[in-house]
Specification:
heterodimer; A: Beta-lactamase; B: two-stranded antiparallel sheet; two-stranded antiparallel ribbon; 16 helices; globular
């Protein structure tokens, strides 16, 4: 008997044990775990089942279909088609047929993602209707989502942005810009446009090779066209922030009103010894050093509001800014919208607060936040929570979800809102206002109220252009925020875009 | 030993049912049955996929059938007493591998379901190529059986074989990444020139096994001396530690330089098991095992990608591993999804979606079988692997020569370890490492090496089961025997 046989038999036993372990493991994997594995992320096998169902449409409030699923002979039976893709990309987002692409950073945006379960027909609210479809032998179809966007306002916003920004560079890259229009009394988003944009159709392809080419191409662009500049890009708000500063000031003393005179030195000597100048170093008002607030506001002098900032302090301004939506995650957590927070920092150094109070230094805002400023004033001081999804309808046309307008906060009393309205009207309607080019005479009788902003951004030749406005001033129907990176003067670069959007939208209401 | 003078069945320790019959017809029938399974698998694919041509399938099938029948004839003529199970198992596994590669090749082609494009890492001619590799594998088997009449012929070349094996294993590490790197991984395990690539380590491992065997036949007795006793372990003499430390160091270099923990484990396991068999001392096995574990942990902390594999194994579904680039656990998780969607009975060949799993034709081919043949299918395949290993070890027990015993035990265990590492890896039993699945994976080196293993097992089992030479005359005490 050979002495090696005993160890060999033990080795045989060891290999047997190894195979038994493998057998037990595959049994666990394939008999016990499948249900939990099917729910795993990036499971294209599950995703491809979803792609077999006709996805619901996305429709604008005025009935234009902006995303639909058409029969296809490709990999899956349905092809997602986006109408005017680049215009509506910030609204729809994109639904790719491959799970890895959908969940990649930046793709997780838009109504396509937020309402995915209803659009693809798997949502629990649709279970009963799906059951009825099954027993009546009807093909299953996803629910239709109606968004609050108005097609005229949206198209105008995008066209205007494109005209203003195409080919324009900022610091060597494509300059960006965004427009948001809100219904002040409900918070419904009437327009949300971003430039540069992308065509979602290019990503909704049924070929991984094409998809990865497009993804790489998009990823190599700076700034990324996938970014929604209307809600994700923050720029200094400049003088538009004076709405918040004056709100704080009115709030601090009931005696304060638009005719109250405030100090308007030129220049203002800051506590740290630096000098803060008015635009072009021109004196404010009549040059006497004391100017009524409404006039300083209309002319957009800097020194009076920087001075108010020092007097009010960073903490008081910050608490007012927060009720307007700054530093407020809840204000911008909007289903279907990927939005960044706007920022106001309460500085302990009053010299910094002076700059913060006129929308410079580290104060930043999104176009959405700009629209929220005007919407608050227009809605008598009450800020309604912005929303994008208006209604979800199952394939049998029954309503599954309906968004109810919701009050977010009340930053200012209706009296103060009246003061702000008066000042913002003066900006556009008074002959010495910075936005006087868009007064009622120029705009066919429509009275627009607004505030311009021309914000320093470190590139002195190209300040950011900002405009926030609402109209008609007497009975506001729309509030708009526009930001154009490196656009120049707010009145020259941002205001015409806002005015065009306002007029396009009011025309649909019969207000010409 | 006095077996020369005794009729073979009476050899002690040999089961009485192992009559020295040739069993070649049994083998032939089982092979035809195996080919029938492969044919059914092909027809299953044809039935469930679009735009299939029976003519093409017929050509593949005839080529495959002729190939394995040549192997059968070679064994019939040159190793008539070989174990009759080896060839049928190799046939069915190799054939199913070819069917799966054909099926994967159809994904995204001819209007069939796919990930939106054909599998990028799989050439359109992969099925033909794989059958060609089967042919080469069988040619290697024939050449081996014709020229190596006794495995002992390799015994004198201890160091030549060892150096050749080391050279083949180390070759990719010495070459630039453009030649030796595997796309999408950190591993450097192949030599790729002009679109044709081989993984020399597949052969290097076998040469090393031959080298270890002849070294241990000579030095086994000495290494089995134990002196110190430490707790419940008897320790070998310190000066005898050199060989195991050398092999351990080599396996660690392999791990660190080539980034290939799978090969490193297989390499170390091979030596440790042979050492254990040669000496009969369990302390060697335990020592080797501990050395490898400690070494792997130390190497893991030094070489980041080894540690990444551990992370991907422990938390494969986490955002960091699955979603953030470079998505270290993506391949593992897609394989698991595939096996999960297959469930007990599978989606049927052509009915699943194995194309989502990266490298499904090589590293993860086992998960494709799990998805399409289900638990039932992969259990059958694991049992076939297990049977193949046990038949090899049975030959090792039966053969009388120590060198053959050692070599075959080492090779059989290495094969088992390879199956364990890759199947355990793709099923998340152990950290996932990209090594080939014997007989199944797309690629020539692994398939040819597997067929070479069949040849070695056949040669040794033939030697073991060959009846003792018949006495020329029956009467009288003195017998004249024919030695050939």
């Amino acid at each position: 008997m050979n002495g090696m046989n005993r160890p060999i038999k033990r080795v045989a036993l060891a290999t047997l044990v190894m195979f038994v372990i493998l057998l037990v493991n595959v049994n666990y994997l394939q008999a016990v775990e499948p249900a939990s594995l099917a729910q795993g992320q990036y499971n294209d096998r599950t995703a491809s089942a979803e792609n077999q169902v006709q996805r619901g449409n996305i429709v604008t409030a005025d009935g234009v279909t902006i995303a639909a699923s058409k029969a296809s002979s490709g990999l899956y039976p349905w092809q997602r088609v986006y109408t005017n893709g680049a215009v509506y990309a910030p609204v729809t987002g994109v639904k790719t047929v491959f799970s890895s692409a959908q969940q990649a950073p930046n793709f997780a945006t838009g109504v396509e993602l937020a309402e995915n379960n209803l659009l693809n027909g798997t949502g629990s609210q649709l279970t009963f209707r799906n059951f009825i479809d099954t027993i009546t032998n009807k093909p299953q179809k996803g629910a239709t989502v109606t968004v609050t966007v108005n097609s005229k306002a949206q198209q105008t916003a995008y066209d205007q942005l494109q005209a203003a920004l195409q080919g324009k560079t900022f610091n060597g890259n494509q300059a960006v810009g965004g427009v948001v229009a809100l219904n002040p009394s409900t918070g419904a988003i009437l327009a949300m446009a971003s430039y540069p944009s992308y065509d979602p159709n290019q990503l909704a392809v049924q070929n991984t090779g094409t998809l990865s080419t497009v993804e790489t191409q998009l990823a190599n662009q700076n700034p990324s066209p996938l970014l929604n500049n209307a809600t994700q890009t923050t720029l200094p708000p400049g003088s538009t922030f004076k709405i918040v500063t004056t709100s704080t000031w009115y709030n601090s003393n009931p005696a304060n009103n638009p005719n109250t005179k405030v100090a308007s030195p030129q220049p203002l000597k800051l506590p740290n010894g630096n000098l803060l100048n008015d635009d072009a170093n021109l004196p404010c008002g009549n040059g006497s050093g004391m100017t009524p607030v409404f006039q300083a506001f209309a002319e957009s002098c800097n020194t009076p509001f920087a001075g108010l900032g020092i007097k009010l302090g960073g903490t008081a301004i910050k608490s007012m800014a927060t009720t307007y939506g700054f530093n407020n995650a809840n204000a911008v957590s909007i289903p279907g919208v990927n939005a960044a927070e706007s920022n106001f920092t309460a500085e302990s150094d009053p010299s910094f607060t002076a700059y913060d109070a006129i929308g410079q230094h580290d104060t930043t805002a999104t176009p959405l936040q700009e629209a929220m400023l005007s919407a608050t004033v227009a809605n008598n001081g009450v800020l309604m929570k912005p929303y994008l999804v208006q209604q979800v309808q199952a394939s049998d046309l029954s309503v599954v979800n309906q968004t109810q307008p919701q009050q977010l906060s009340q930053p200012i009393s209706s009296t103060i809102a009246g003061y702000e309205k008066q000042m913002m009207t003066a900006v556009v309607q008074d002959s010495d206002g910075t936005g006087s080019a868009y007064n009622a005479n120029a705009e066919g009788g429509i009275v627009i109220a607004g505030k311009t902003g021309t914000a320093q951004n470190g590139l002195s030749s190209q300040p950011d252009a900002v405009f926030t406005a609402f109209a008609p001033a007497g009975n506001p129907k729309i509030a708009v925020g526009v930001m154009i990176q490196g656009g120049g003067y707010g009145a020259a670069a941002a205001a015409p875009i806002a005015v065009a959007v306002i007029r396009a939208y009011l025309a649909t209401l019969g207000i010409q | 030993m006095s077996s020369m003078t005794m009729p073979s069945p009476a050899v002690s320790g040999q089961p009485p049912d192992e009559a020295p019959t040739q069993r070649r017809s049994t083998e032939l029938w089982m092979m035809l049955f195996a080919c029938g399974i492969v044919l059914f698998a092909f027809l299953n694919v044809v039935g469930s996929l679009k735009d299939q041509h029976l003519g093409t399938i017929f050509e593949y099938m005839v080529a495959f059938l002729v190939t394995v029948l040549v192997a059968h004839v070679a064994i019939r003529l040159r190793a008539p007493y070989a174990d009759p199970l080896l060839l049928p198992i190799a046939t069915v596994l190799n054939g199913l591998g070819v069917v799966m590669i054909y099926r994967l090749n159809q994904a995204g082609r001819n209007g069939n379901a796919g990930s939106g494009a054909p599998i990028a890492t799989l050439s359109p001619h992969a099925t033909t190529t794989q059958i060609l590799y089967s042919v080469i594998g069988v040619v290697v088997l024939v050449v081996f059986l014709v020229f190596i009449k006794d495995i002992k012929a390799l015994q004198p070349y201890t160091y030549i074989l060892g150096l050749a094996g080391l050279f083949l294993i180390a070759l990719p590490a010495m070459l630039p990444s453009s030649i030796s790197g595997v796309a999408g991984t950190n591993a450097k395990i192949q030599v790729s020139l002009g679109g044709f690539s081989i993984q020399p380590e597949e052969f290097g491992k076998m040469l090393l096994a031959a080298s270890f065997a002849s070294y241990l036949v000579v030095n086994g007795k000495q290494l089995s001396l134990l002196t110190e006793k430490w707790w419940i372990f008897s320790l070998p003499r310190r000066r005898d530690l050199l060989p195991i430390l050398v092999v351990w160091a080599l396996s660690m270099i392999l791990l660190v330089v080539e980034g290939d923990i799978g090969t490193s484990a297989v390499f170390m396991g091979l030596f440790v098991v042979m050492l254990y068999v040669a000496t009969g001392r369990r302390s060697w096995a335990i020592l080797g095992f501990l050395l490898f574990i400690v070494g792997a942990i130390v190497a893991g902390t030094i070489v980041s990608h080894v540690w990444q594999r551990f992370d991907a194994w422990l938390h494969p579904f986490s955002t960091q591993e699955l979603i953030d680039l470079p998505q270290p656990s993506y391949q593992l998780v897609q394989g698991l999804y595939g096996m999960g969607s297959g469930g007990l009975l599978g989606k049927g060949l052509g009915g699943g979606q194995p194309f989502w799993t990266p490298l499904v034709q090589s590293d993860s081919i086992f998960t494709a079988f799990g998805e399409e043949l289900g638990l039932a299918g992969v259990m059958a395949m694991l049992l076939l692997y297990g049977l193949f290993v046990q038949r090899g070890l049975r030959a090792a027990v039966m053969v009388k020569d120590d060198y053959a015993k050692l070599l075959v035990t080492g090779l059989a265990f290495m094969f088992a370890l390879q199956v364990f590492v890759i199947v355990g890896g793709v099923t998340r039993l152990i950290p996932f490492t990209g090594i080939t699945t014997p007989f199944l994976s797309q690629g020539g080196s692994s398939l040819i090496a597997s067929w070479l293993l069949v040849a070695i097992f056949a040669r040794v089992s033939d030697t073991a089961r060959r009846p003792a030479p018949k006495p020329i005359q029956d009467e009288g005490m003195t017998q004249v025997v024919s030695l050939r």
